[in-house]
Amino acid sequence: MILPIVAYGDPVLKKVAVDIDKNYPKLDELISNMFETMYNAAGVGLAAPQVGLSIRMFVVDGSPFTEKEEDEEDDPKAAGMEDFKRVFINPRITKEEGEEWGFNEGCLSIPKIREEVFRKEQITVTYYDENWKQHTETFDGYSARIIQHEYDHIEGVLFTDHLSALKRRLLTKKLTNISKGEISVDYKMKFPATLRGKR
Question: Of residues 29, 72, 137, 150, which has the active-site annotation?
Answer without folding.
Answer: 150
